[in-house]
Amino acid sequence: MLWPREHFRVAFKQVVSDAIDTHGASVLLLVALDVDSIAAVSILTSLLQAELVAYSMVPVAGYKQMAAMTFSSEIRSIFLINCGAMIDVYSTLKLTDQKVYVIDSHRPLHLANVYDRHGTVVLFDDEAPAATLTFELASQLNMATADKVWLAIVGLTKQFVAQQIDADNYNMLVQKFQDEVLALPSNGGSNDVVHDVDGTVLPTGKDELEVFLARMGLSLKECQQSSSTRSCVLLERGMAMAMQLQQAVVTLGVSILDRKLIVRVKHFRFVCLRLSEEEEHLCGHPSTLSRLALFLVDVHREQGKWIGKHAAPFVLIAHIKARNVYLVVGVTCPERAGDIHRNTLGTAFALAAAETGAASTYDGFETTVMELHMDDINVFVEQLHNVMDA
Hints:
By secondary structure, the chain is α/β, with parallel strands linked by helices. Helices cover 46% and strands 14% of the residues. The protein has 2 domains: 2-162, inorganic pyrophosphatase (n-terminal core) (Alpha-Beta Complex), CATH 3.90.1640; 233-389, Diaminopimelate Epimerase, Chain A, domain 1. It has helices spanning 8-18, 35-50, 63-67, 89-93, 111-114, 130-140, 146-161, 167-183, 206-215, 220-223, 227-258, 277-283, 286-302, 345-356, 377-389, and strands at 2-3, 27-32, 55-60, 77-81, 99-103, 121-124, 263-264, 269-274, 314-320, 325-331, 369-372. It has a 6-stranded parallel beta sheet with strand order 1-6-5-4-2-3. Strands 7-8-9-10-11 form a 5-stranded mixed beta sheet, with helices on both faces. Helix 2 runs parallel beside helix 6, helix 6 (130-140) packs antiparallel against helix 7 and helix 14 (345-356) packs across helix 15. Residues 187-205 have low confidence and may be disordered. It is found in: Nucleus. Belongs to the CDC45 family. GO terms for molecular function: chromatin binding; DNA replication origin binding; single-stranded DNA binding.
Protein backbone atom coordinates (compact mmCIF):
# COMPACT_ATOMS: atom_id res chain seq x y z
CA MET A 1 0.00 0.00 0.00
CA LEU A 2 1.10 3.58 -0.61
CA TRP A 3 1.99 5.39 2.60
CA PRO A 4 1.73 9.20 2.38
CA ARG A 5 4.80 11.29 3.16
CA GLU A 6 3.13 13.22 5.95
CA HIS A 7 2.50 10.00 7.91
CA PHE A 8 5.97 8.38 7.75
CA ARG A 9 6.20 8.84 11.53
CA VAL A 10 3.14 6.63 12.07
CA ALA A 11 4.74 3.74 10.18
CA PHE A 12 7.96 4.06 12.20
CA LYS A 13 6.04 4.06 15.49
CA GLN A 14 4.45 0.78 14.38
CA VAL A 15 7.94 -0.68 13.87
CA VAL A 16 8.90 0.39 17.39
CA SER A 17 5.68 -1.05 18.81
CA ASP A 18 6.21 -4.37 17.01
CA ALA A 19 9.68 -4.63 18.58
CA ILE A 20 8.27 -4.79 22.11
CA ASP A 21 8.78 -8.13 23.88
CA THR A 22 11.23 -9.45 21.30
CA HIS A 23 14.49 -10.94 22.55
CA GLY A 24 16.73 -10.34 19.53
CA ALA A 25 16.85 -8.14 16.47
CA SER A 26 13.25 -7.49 15.42
CA VAL A 27 14.14 -5.34 12.41
CA LEU A 28 15.99 -6.46 9.28
CA LEU A 29 17.49 -3.86 6.93
CA LEU A 30 18.12 -4.97 3.33
CA VAL A 31 20.27 -2.30 1.72
CA ALA A 32 21.23 -1.84 -1.94
CA LEU A 33 24.89 -1.15 -2.66
CA ASP A 34 24.85 2.53 -3.61
CA VAL A 35 25.65 5.86 -1.99
CA ASP A 36 22.05 6.99 -1.49
CA SER A 37 21.18 3.69 0.21
CA ILE A 38 24.15 3.89 2.58
CA ALA A 39 23.27 7.47 3.51
CA ALA A 40 19.61 6.50 4.01
CA VAL A 41 20.35 3.51 6.22
CA SER A 42 22.79 5.58 8.29
CA ILE A 43 19.92 7.92 9.15
CA LEU A 44 17.48 5.07 9.73
CA THR A 45 19.77 3.13 12.05
CA SER A 46 20.32 6.21 14.20
CA LEU A 47 16.53 6.48 14.62
CA LEU A 48 16.26 2.81 15.58
CA GLN A 49 19.11 3.17 18.05
CA ALA A 50 17.40 6.16 19.65
CA GLU A 51 14.34 3.95 20.27
CA LEU A 52 16.53 1.06 21.51
CA VAL A 53 15.29 -1.17 18.70
CA ALA A 54 17.77 -3.93 17.82
CA TYR A 55 18.29 -4.59 14.13
CA SER A 56 20.41 -6.55 11.71
CA MET A 57 21.64 -5.28 8.36
CA VAL A 58 22.34 -7.14 5.12
CA PRO A 59 23.74 -5.52 1.95
CA VAL A 60 21.98 -6.91 -1.13
CA ALA A 61 23.30 -6.97 -4.68
CA GLY A 62 20.27 -8.32 -6.52
CA TYR A 63 16.86 -9.95 -6.55
CA LYS A 64 18.14 -13.54 -6.46
CA GLN A 65 19.87 -12.84 -3.17
CA MET A 66 16.64 -11.37 -1.78
CA ALA A 67 14.55 -14.32 -2.98
CA ALA A 68 16.90 -16.81 -1.30
CA MET A 69 16.63 -15.20 2.14
CA THR A 70 15.01 -16.76 5.17
CA PHE A 71 13.98 -14.87 8.28
CA SER A 72 14.18 -15.77 11.95
CA SER A 73 11.01 -15.84 14.00
CA GLU A 74 12.18 -12.69 15.81
CA ILE A 75 12.01 -10.53 12.67
CA ARG A 76 8.84 -8.43 12.75
CA SER A 77 9.76 -5.59 10.37
CA ILE A 78 11.85 -5.50 7.18
CA PHE A 79 13.09 -2.32 5.50
CA LEU A 80 14.03 -2.43 1.82
CA ILE A 81 16.35 0.47 1.01
CA ASN A 82 16.46 1.19 -2.75
CA CYS A 83 15.43 -2.36 -3.56
CA GLY A 84 11.99 -3.90 -3.89
CA ALA A 85 9.68 -1.25 -5.33
CA MET A 86 9.68 -2.85 -8.80
CA ILE A 87 9.08 -6.47 -7.73
CA ASP A 88 6.27 -8.32 -5.99
CA VAL A 89 7.70 -8.07 -2.48
CA TYR A 90 5.27 -10.47 -0.80
CA SER A 91 5.96 -13.30 -3.26
CA THR A 92 9.69 -12.67 -3.68
CA LEU A 93 10.45 -12.65 0.04
CA LYS A 94 7.91 -15.39 0.80
CA LEU A 95 6.53 -13.39 3.70
CA THR A 96 4.58 -14.93 6.56
CA ASP A 97 3.80 -12.50 9.37
CA GLN A 98 6.50 -9.87 8.75
CA LYS A 99 5.71 -6.33 7.66
CA VAL A 100 7.85 -4.74 4.94
CA TYR A 101 8.61 -1.03 4.58
CA VAL A 102 9.92 -0.06 1.13
CA ILE A 103 12.00 3.12 0.82
CA ASP A 104 12.99 2.98 -2.84
CA SER A 105 13.26 5.65 -5.54
CA HIS A 106 13.24 3.13 -8.41
CA ARG A 107 10.25 3.21 -10.70
CA PRO A 108 7.84 1.88 -11.89
CA LEU A 109 6.15 0.53 -8.78
CA HIS A 110 4.98 -3.07 -8.95
CA LEU A 111 1.19 -3.07 -8.74
CA ALA A 112 1.23 -5.98 -6.27
CA ASN A 113 2.89 -3.60 -3.80
CA VAL A 114 0.55 -0.70 -4.51
CA TYR A 115 -2.59 -2.85 -4.15
CA ASP A 116 -1.24 -5.16 -1.46
CA ARG A 117 -4.08 -7.53 -0.60
CA HIS A 118 -2.07 -9.04 2.27
CA GLY A 119 -1.65 -5.74 4.12
CA THR A 120 2.03 -6.41 4.72
CA VAL A 121 3.86 -4.10 2.26
CA VAL A 122 4.16 -0.37 2.97
CA LEU A 123 5.57 1.86 0.21
CA PHE A 124 6.93 5.20 1.39
CA ASP A 125 5.22 7.23 -1.33
CA ASP A 126 7.66 9.69 -2.88
CA GLU A 127 10.14 9.67 -5.77
CA ALA A 128 12.81 11.47 -3.78
CA PRO A 129 16.15 9.85 -2.91
CA ALA A 130 15.94 7.32 -0.08
CA ALA A 131 18.16 9.46 2.14
CA THR A 132 15.76 12.38 1.68
CA LEU A 133 12.85 10.18 2.81
CA THR A 134 14.64 8.89 5.90
CA PHE A 135 15.59 12.46 6.77
CA GLU A 136 11.92 13.44 6.42
CA LEU A 137 11.14 10.64 8.88
CA ALA A 138 13.80 11.98 11.27
CA SER A 139 12.25 15.46 11.04
CA GLN A 140 8.78 14.12 11.84
CA LEU A 141 10.24 12.36 14.88
CA ASN A 142 12.01 15.58 15.97
CA MET A 143 15.36 13.83 15.56
CA ALA A 144 16.82 15.95 12.75
CA THR A 145 20.48 16.80 13.34
CA ALA A 146 23.25 18.38 11.28
CA ASP A 147 24.85 15.01 10.51
CA LYS A 148 21.52 13.69 9.20
CA VAL A 149 21.17 16.75 6.95
CA TRP A 150 24.64 16.02 5.60
CA LEU A 151 23.72 12.39 4.89
CA ALA A 152 20.53 13.48 3.13
CA ILE A 153 22.55 15.87 0.94
CA VAL A 154 25.00 13.07 0.10
CA GLY A 155 22.15 10.85 -1.10
CA LEU A 156 20.57 13.71 -3.03
CA THR A 157 23.84 14.65 -4.71
CA LYS A 158 24.45 11.07 -5.78
CA GLN A 159 21.09 10.96 -7.54
CA PHE A 160 21.65 14.34 -9.19
CA VAL A 161 25.10 13.37 -10.49
CA ALA A 162 23.64 10.09 -11.82
CA GLN A 163 20.83 12.03 -13.57
CA GLN A 164 18.17 10.35 -11.44
CA ILE A 165 16.70 13.67 -10.29
CA ASP A 166 16.35 16.87 -12.30
CA ALA A 167 17.90 20.24 -11.50
CA ASP A 168 14.63 21.86 -10.37
CA ASN A 169 13.90 19.19 -7.76
CA TYR A 170 17.55 19.11 -6.73
CA ASN A 171 17.62 22.88 -6.13
CA MET A 172 14.31 22.73 -4.25
CA LEU A 173 15.61 20.04 -1.90
CA VAL A 174 18.95 21.82 -1.43
CA GLN A 175 17.04 24.92 -0.31
CA LYS A 176 14.98 22.76 2.06
CA PHE A 177 18.13 21.32 3.62
CA GLN A 178 19.66 24.78 3.95
CA ASP A 179 16.56 25.88 5.85
CA GLU A 180 16.81 22.76 8.03
CA VAL A 181 20.40 23.58 8.97
CA LEU A 182 19.47 27.14 9.94
CA ALA A 183 16.63 25.82 12.10
CA LEU A 184 18.81 23.33 13.99
CA PRO A 185 20.30 24.11 17.42
CA SER A 186 23.98 25.03 17.32
CA ASN A 187 24.87 21.71 18.95
CA GLY A 188 22.72 19.63 16.59
CA GLY A 189 25.59 17.50 15.39
CA SER A 190 26.36 13.85 15.74
CA ASN A 191 27.53 11.95 18.76
CA ASP A 192 30.59 9.76 18.96
CA VAL A 193 28.90 6.55 20.09
CA VAL A 194 29.87 3.63 17.87
CA HIS A 195 27.26 0.98 17.07
CA ASP A 196 27.63 -2.44 15.50
CA VAL A 197 25.46 -3.53 12.56
CA ASP A 198 23.08 -5.44 14.82
CA GLY A 199 22.05 -2.21 16.52
CA THR A 200 23.84 -2.80 19.82
CA VAL A 201 26.41 -0.41 21.25
CA LEU A 202 29.93 -1.70 20.85
CA PRO A 203 32.05 -2.33 23.95
CA THR A 204 33.85 0.86 24.86
CA GLY A 205 36.94 -0.94 26.07
CA LYS A 206 40.15 0.15 24.36
CA ASP A 207 41.04 -3.28 22.93
CA GLU A 208 37.57 -4.01 21.56
CA LEU A 209 37.26 -0.60 19.92
CA GLU A 210 40.69 -0.92 18.31
CA VAL A 211 39.72 -4.29 16.83
CA PHE A 212 36.54 -2.79 15.39
CA LEU A 213 38.37 0.17 13.85
CA ALA A 214 41.07 -2.10 12.46
CA ARG A 215 38.35 -3.94 10.55
CA MET A 216 37.50 -0.58 8.98
CA GLY A 217 41.06 -0.27 7.67
CA LEU A 218 42.68 1.91 10.34
CA SER A 219 46.18 1.17 11.60
CA LEU A 220 46.86 0.68 15.31
CA LYS A 221 48.30 4.20 15.52
CA GLU A 222 45.19 5.66 13.88
CA CYS A 223 42.93 3.61 16.17
CA GLN A 224 44.55 5.27 19.18
CA GLN A 225 43.66 8.76 17.96
CA SER A 226 40.61 10.75 19.08
CA SER A 227 37.21 9.98 17.56
CA SER A 228 37.18 13.24 15.57
CA THR A 229 40.64 12.47 14.17
CA ARG A 230 39.56 8.94 13.22
CA SER A 231 36.53 10.36 11.42
CA CYS A 232 38.81 12.69 9.48
CA VAL A 233 41.06 9.77 8.51
CA LEU A 234 38.11 7.75 7.23
CA LEU A 235 36.76 10.77 5.35
CA GLU A 236 40.14 11.47 3.77
CA ARG A 237 40.44 7.85 2.64
CA GLY A 238 36.97 7.94 1.17
CA MET A 239 37.74 11.16 -0.68
CA ALA A 240 41.03 9.74 -1.97
CA MET A 241 39.25 6.66 -3.34
CA ALA A 242 36.54 8.81 -4.93
CA MET A 243 39.17 11.03 -6.56
CA GLN A 244 41.05 8.00 -7.88
CA LEU A 245 37.86 6.61 -9.38
CA GLN A 246 36.90 9.94 -10.95
CA GLN A 247 40.40 10.32 -12.39
CA ALA A 248 40.11 6.85 -13.94
CA VAL A 249 36.74 7.78 -15.47
CA VAL A 250 38.11 11.01 -16.96
CA THR A 251 41.28 9.33 -18.25
CA LEU A 252 39.31 6.57 -19.95
CA GLY A 253 36.82 9.11 -21.31
CA VAL A 254 39.57 11.25 -22.82
CA SER A 255 41.11 8.13 -24.37
CA ILE A 256 37.76 7.28 -26.00
CA LEU A 257 37.51 10.82 -27.38
CA ASP A 258 41.09 10.87 -28.66
CA ARG A 259 40.66 7.54 -30.44
CA LYS A 260 37.25 8.57 -31.84
CA LEU A 261 35.68 5.27 -30.78
CA ILE A 262 32.06 6.45 -30.55
CA VAL A 263 29.83 5.22 -33.38
CA ARG A 264 26.56 6.87 -34.43
CA VAL A 265 23.71 4.78 -35.80
CA LYS A 266 20.20 5.96 -36.57
CA HIS A 267 18.66 5.94 -33.09
CA PHE A 268 21.61 5.97 -30.69
CA ARG A 269 25.36 6.26 -30.28
CA PHE A 270 27.51 3.52 -28.82
CA VAL A 271 31.06 2.58 -27.95
CA CYS A 272 32.41 -0.92 -27.37
CA LEU A 273 35.44 -1.13 -25.07
CA ARG A 274 37.99 -3.76 -24.21
CA LEU A 275 39.36 -2.65 -20.87
CA SER A 276 42.88 -3.20 -19.61
CA GLU A 277 43.30 -5.10 -16.37
CA GLU A 278 43.74 -1.85 -14.43
CA GLU A 279 40.78 -0.19 -16.17
CA GLU A 280 38.64 -3.24 -15.48
CA HIS A 281 39.59 -3.14 -11.80
CA LEU A 282 38.60 0.52 -11.47
CA CYS A 283 35.79 0.87 -14.01
CA GLY A 284 34.35 -2.61 -14.53
CA HIS A 285 31.20 -1.93 -12.51
CA PRO A 286 27.80 -0.78 -13.82
CA SER A 287 27.72 2.39 -11.71
CA THR A 288 31.21 3.43 -12.84
CA LEU A 289 30.46 2.69 -16.49
CA SER A 290 27.27 4.74 -16.19
CA ARG A 291 29.33 7.59 -14.77
CA LEU A 292 31.71 7.28 -17.74
CA ALA A 293 28.77 7.35 -20.16
CA LEU A 294 27.36 10.48 -18.49
CA PHE A 295 30.78 12.13 -18.60
CA LEU A 296 30.99 11.57 -22.36
CA VAL A 297 27.47 12.92 -22.86
CA ASP A 298 28.29 16.02 -20.80
CA VAL A 299 31.50 16.71 -22.75
CA HIS A 300 29.79 16.51 -26.14
CA ARG A 301 26.81 18.56 -24.99
CA GLU A 302 29.01 21.32 -23.57
CA GLN A 303 30.88 21.39 -26.89
CA GLY A 304 27.56 21.98 -28.64
CA LYS A 305 27.74 18.69 -30.54
CA TRP A 306 25.10 16.42 -28.99
CA ILE A 307 22.22 18.90 -28.89
CA GLY A 308 19.03 19.44 -30.84
CA LYS A 309 18.64 16.97 -33.70
CA HIS A 310 22.12 15.63 -32.94
CA ALA A 311 21.13 14.43 -29.45
CA ALA A 312 20.62 10.67 -29.09
CA PRO A 313 20.77 8.05 -26.32
CA PHE A 314 24.24 6.71 -25.61
CA VAL A 315 25.08 3.04 -25.04
CA LEU A 316 28.39 2.01 -23.49
CA ILE A 317 29.51 -1.61 -23.83
CA ALA A 318 32.54 -2.97 -21.99
CA HIS A 319 34.04 -6.44 -22.22
CA ILE A 320 34.86 -7.72 -18.73
CA LYS A 321 37.61 -10.24 -19.36
CA ALA A 322 37.65 -11.65 -15.82
CA ARG A 323 34.10 -12.98 -16.26
CA ASN A 324 34.03 -13.08 -20.08
CA VAL A 325 30.87 -10.99 -20.22
CA TYR A 326 29.80 -7.72 -21.77
CA LEU A 327 28.42 -5.05 -19.46
CA VAL A 328 25.96 -2.78 -21.25
CA VAL A 329 24.75 0.53 -19.80
CA GLY A 330 22.56 3.15 -21.41
CA VAL A 331 21.97 6.83 -20.66
CA THR A 332 19.86 9.55 -22.22
CA CYS A 333 21.15 12.76 -23.80
CA PRO A 334 18.99 15.66 -22.57
CA GLU A 335 19.20 19.06 -24.22
CA ARG A 336 20.46 20.79 -21.07
CA ALA A 337 22.49 19.68 -18.08
CA GLY A 338 20.12 18.98 -15.20
CA ASP A 339 17.20 17.91 -17.41
CA ILE A 340 15.89 14.36 -17.15
CA HIS A 341 14.54 12.31 -20.04
CA ARG A 342 12.66 9.06 -19.52
CA ASN A 343 15.17 6.30 -20.18
CA THR A 344 13.57 3.55 -22.28
CA LEU A 345 16.82 1.78 -23.11
CA GLY A 346 16.22 -0.89 -20.47
CA THR A 347 13.19 -2.19 -22.35
CA ALA A 348 15.06 -1.99 -25.66
CA PHE A 349 18.01 -3.90 -24.16
CA ALA A 350 15.73 -6.70 -22.97
CA LEU A 351 14.00 -7.02 -26.35
CA ALA A 352 17.29 -7.02 -28.26
CA ALA A 353 18.78 -9.66 -25.95
CA ALA A 354 15.69 -11.83 -26.36
CA GLU A 355 15.88 -11.58 -30.16
CA THR A 356 19.53 -12.62 -30.18
CA GLY A 357 19.05 -15.38 -27.63
CA ALA A 358 21.47 -13.76 -25.20
CA ALA A 359 20.39 -14.14 -21.58
CA SER A 360 21.29 -11.31 -19.21
CA THR A 361 23.00 -12.39 -16.01
CA TYR A 362 22.77 -8.94 -14.40
CA ASP A 363 20.76 -9.18 -11.21
CA GLY A 364 21.04 -5.65 -9.86
CA PHE A 365 18.37 -3.03 -9.32
CA GLU A 366 19.09 -0.69 -12.25
CA THR A 367 16.86 -1.20 -15.30
CA THR A 368 19.26 0.20 -17.92
CA VAL A 369 22.07 -2.28 -17.28
CA MET A 370 22.62 -5.69 -18.84
CA GLU A 371 25.33 -8.33 -18.50
CA LEU A 372 25.50 -10.54 -21.57
CA HIS A 373 27.28 -13.80 -22.34
CA MET A 374 27.74 -13.85 -26.09
CA ASP A 375 30.58 -14.17 -28.56
CA ASP A 376 29.61 -11.39 -30.92
CA ILE A 377 28.39 -8.19 -29.31
CA ASN A 378 27.85 -6.74 -32.78
CA VAL A 379 24.79 -8.97 -33.19
CA PHE A 380 23.29 -7.42 -30.05
CA VAL A 381 24.01 -3.88 -31.27
CA GLU A 382 22.43 -4.65 -34.65
CA GLN A 383 19.33 -6.06 -33.00
CA LEU A 384 19.14 -3.09 -30.62
CA HIS A 385 19.04 -0.84 -33.67
CA ASN A 386 16.21 -2.93 -35.14
CA VAL A 387 14.23 -2.77 -31.89
CA MET A 388 14.55 1.01 -31.64
CA ASP A 389 13.68 1.36 -35.33
CA ALA A 390 10.42 -0.59 -34.94
